[in-house]
Amino acid sequence: MKIRAGKATPQIVDGIVVDYYGSPVPINQVGNITVMDARTINIQPWEKNMLQPIERAIIAANIGINPQNDGINIRLFLPPLTEERRKELVKKARLRARTLK
What is the pTM of this model? Predict the structure, then answer.
C-alpha cells in the first residue's frame, strides 16, 4: 500500500506525522482524508490553523507529491504514470517482496 502506483488512496499519507501544538501526531488525527477522484487526495483539517503544519509535514515526508493549499483544504494531485515511473515501481515492489520473505 505504500507504493504509489497511480491511483489515489488515503494510505499514501499514512506514516506522515504533523507537529500538533508541539506534539507529533499522525496526519489522520488532525483532519479528514478523502479521495476525491482516482488521482486526487483531499485533506480537510479540523482546525484551520493546521493547514501550514500539515503542508510542511507532507513536504518533509518526501512522498513525491506537492500539496496545494487553497486556504480551506490541502489537495494532493498524483501525477500520471510514465513508463519510466512504472519500471521504477516494479523495482521497488520486487525489493519489498524480497524483504518480506
Answer: 0.77
